[in-house]
Write a structure and sequence with these properties.
The protein is an alpha+beta fold and about 230 residues long. It has one domain: PK beta-barrel domain-like (M1 Pyruvate Kinase, Domain 3, Beta Barrel), CATH 2.40.33. About 25% of the residues lie in helices and about 25% in strands. The chain is built from seven helices and 13 strands. It has an eight-stranded mixed β-sheet with strand order 4-1-8-7-11-10-9-13. Strands 6-5-12 form a three-stranded antiparallel β-sheet, with no helix packed on it. A two-stranded antiparallel sheet has the order 2-3. Strand 7 (about 75-80), helix 2 and strand 8 (about 105-110) form a beta-alpha-beta unit. The radius of gyration is 16 Å and the shape is globular.
């Protein structure tokens, strides 16, 4: 698949275009999911016209059904890059339209899986500001959604998880909105680094960065990093 060269090939894409939102997606309809409390999942996201209001718990009109693992302020909005979706399309021999992975925002020109934990971005002109909190780790719901053999294993091996963000300042978002970098912590640990299983030393380095005041982790990211650091 060539994922080991992801950063090098991605650099040309990201340098070629201003980072912006290419699609805004919210839940289209509920699908059956036996692992969730009410037997449904809201992973079926599809593009909608904007502007769409974004609050501290995510996009207006959207849903998260498995709040133990998704949603809440720490996981309010999920971003995935066009460039990574295109590579998956080539690997799988099928289209990966915006929303198929359950993402709320599809981006273009931004290395989403290379974003540093704790980085802050402004999106569009409404004042919307977000902070990178966590990678997306694949689950059985995602595997059922994709219908691909050994999907959890394959997605993990790809190490292009996309990123969850918390909303710092509410606003609106729509396709075409520019994405502006505001701050990147010095620790340099990315969402791809700490996707389970974390790259060697990255979880411990992230915890050390928090102890040094470089980043404030959410409760779930801290717990994940603590668990992975303990496993070595």
């Amino acid at each position: 698949m060539g994922w080991t060269a992801r950063g090098l090939s991605a650099a040309a894409h990201y340098a070629a275009a201003m980072a912006h939102i290419s699609a805004v997606c919210i839940v289209h309809g509920l699908l059956p999911e036996p692992n969730n409390p009410d037997g449904t999942t809201a992973i079926d996201k599809r593009p909608v016209p904007g502007p769409v209001p974004v609050g501290f718990r995510g996009l207006a009109g959207d849903l998260q059904k498995d709040l133990a693992h998704h949603g809440g302020q720490e996981y309010a909005v999920y971003l995935y890059a066009d460039e990574d979706a295109q590579r998956w399309a080539g690997e799988l021999g099928r289209d990966i339209p915006a929303g198929l992975f359950g993402e709320n925002l599809r981006t273009h020109g931004l290395d989403v899986s290379g974003l540093v934990i704790g980085s802050r971005y402004r999106i569009g002109a409404s004042g919307l500001e977000v902070e990178v909190t966590s990678p997306r780790n694949p689950c059985a719901t995602f595997a059922r959604r994709m219908g691909e053999p050994q999907w959890v294993k394959r997605f993990t091996k790809g190490r292009a998880p996309g990123a969850y963000v918390r909303v710092l300042t509410p606003g609106t978002v729509e396709s075409g909105d520019a994405i502006e970098e505001l701050d990147v912590p010095a620790h340099g640990i990315t969402v791809a680094d700490v996707m389970k299983p974390a790259l060697p030393g990255s979880a411990s380095a992230l915890l050390a960065a928090e102890a040094a005041g470089q980043v404030q982790l959410g409760a779930r990211m801290r717990a994940d990093a603590t668990h992975q650091a303990a496993r070595g």
